Amino acid sequence: MRRHRRARIVATLGPSTSNMNSIKSLFMAGADIFRLNFSHGSQAEHHARCKIIRNLEKETGRPIGILMDLQGPKLRIGEIKEKQIKLTPGQNFRLDLENFSGDSSRVQLPHPRIFESLSKGTEILLDDGRLRLRVSSHSKDSVETEVVVGGLLSSHKGVNFPDVELDVSSITKKDQKDLKFGLQMGVDWVALSFVQKPADIIEASNMIDGRAKIMAKLEKPAALNSLEKIVSLADGIMVARGDLGVELAPEDVPSLQKLIIRKARRAGKPVVVATQMLESMISNPSPTRAEVSDVANGVYDGADALMLSAESAIGNYPIESVRMMSRIIERVESDPTYIDLITNRESEPESTSSDAITAAAKQVADTIGAAAIATYTTSGSTAIRASRERPNVPILVLTPNLGTARALALVWGLHCIHTEDAKSFKEMVEKASNKAISEDYAGSNDKLVITAGVPFGTPGSTNVLRIEIIK
User: Fold this and answer.
1) What is the reported pTM?
2) Annotated catalytic residue: which of 122, 145, 275, 378?
3) Domains, the chain, with CATH or none
4) Has 265 been annotated as catalytic?
5) Which residues lie closer than 8 Å to 26 by C-beta, 6 or more apart?
6) Is 35 in the active site?
7) Considering 5, 217, 362, 385, which one is annotated as catalytic?
8) Which of 24, 74, 76, 331 is catalytic?
9) At the N or C end, where does the chain have fewer CB atoms within 10 A?
10) Annotation marks residue 76 as catalytic
11) Residue of 3, 35, 241, 362 marked active site
12) How do the pLDDT tens digits run along the chain, 471 residues long?
């Protein structure tokens, strides 16, 4: 089950991919980690998918990661009396707490805490930014606006506030129930929606309490004001470009994608690029040239993983979408320009023995022409350090912790192997050599660079580098 690429693929499961055959086909086509989108589907449906993934894991002998994506707060207007109303530029339009059907003059906004966050001149977007309003005045239970960009509006459309940090928790009551359920199922990652500030990560961390890793979804412009702190607190980052593109000018998103990836890489945090990557493959067997370039750009930027959403969840060509993404990644990674780019973006190691050993492992592997780097890890920190160095050879990760192996399936260049812990340094070297052969990464007389922490079982204590010639 060796993957001949470094960047990983996240595939969302849904109605198109909910049975054993389809999920297995996605995995065989190249999916490394599966996303359960809790904005859609019941807990029972997600539980059934989770069981299938774990059975597939046993069948293939490969650790497979599961990412649960929390819905987060969904800000929507209330009911509109007619099928649609038309808003005209320059007209007045009120949003309020009144619980009755709206018309061309007003509509309910059932989120009382939001009104206190607004001020005169604040911009409000309706229906994914298709309509734009500007606040004229506001009180604790209503806001008067002027229509800037008009159009047709119907019931329950989404509302966005691009210039405001809202007094809203990123974790709703629904999210709390889903989170408890997902942790009981044993998910490996929790994607946190509506992140605006570092406190949102801290709140989620207190609830999760180490039972899964936290991925901060960057979809709100407010989060960019505290980007470095959010990156430092989260275990991983998702560039949620669709939502960012609603609240920001579309032309700003590409440069922000590069900035976020760069910050995450410097911090040694895996980063996922998501949304509309191969969107046309929902209904077509082939992508557009622009979509291919978009996927390739994410790889050139240095992302750890790329994500398929509707393409694999509800599309007509889910398997083909994964295969296409895998082909694009492999092609980019064979490009000398890509190799130059990731080499030039190297991060300076921290002044610790673990970082020194990991940085040296890459240099040694290049110098001696090693077949692979093998690293032992319990918590995963050693493996993530190895990935951050972006070596030119594969990275084998041996861990006695199955949860660690599953979570690391998301990380660039890591081939994770769940194995019993070594009892001695000699046994560790033998295990690494045997796994390199059995997993088709090395053969007789090949060189292997091995890193580990001694004594074993101490997280973050990498202090040994060994060159082994496989007999």
Assistant:
1) 0.93
2) 275
3) 8-72+170-332 (3.20.20.60), 85-160 (2.40.33.10), 353-469 (3.40.1380.20)
4) no
5) 11, 17, 34, 312, 318, 319, 322
6) yes
7) 217
8) 76
9) C
10) yes
11) 35
12) 789 999 999 999 999 999 999 999 999 999 999 999 999 999 999 999 999 999 999 999 999 999 999 999 989 999 999 889 999 999 999 999 999 999 999 999 999 889 988 999 999 999 989 999 999 999 999 999 999 999 999 999 999 998 888 888 899 999 999 999 999 999 999 999 999 999 999 999 999 999 999 999 999 999 999 999 999 999 999 999 988 888 898 899 999 999 999 999 989 999 999 999 999 999 999 999 999 999 999 999 999 999 999 999 999 999 999 999 999 999 999 999 998 888 777 667 677 888 899 999 999 999 999 999 999 998 999 899 999 999 999 999 999 999 999 999 999 999 999 998 888 888 989 999 999 999 999 999 999 999 988 776 666 678 889 999 998
- Tell me the two tokens of residue 233: 């607190």
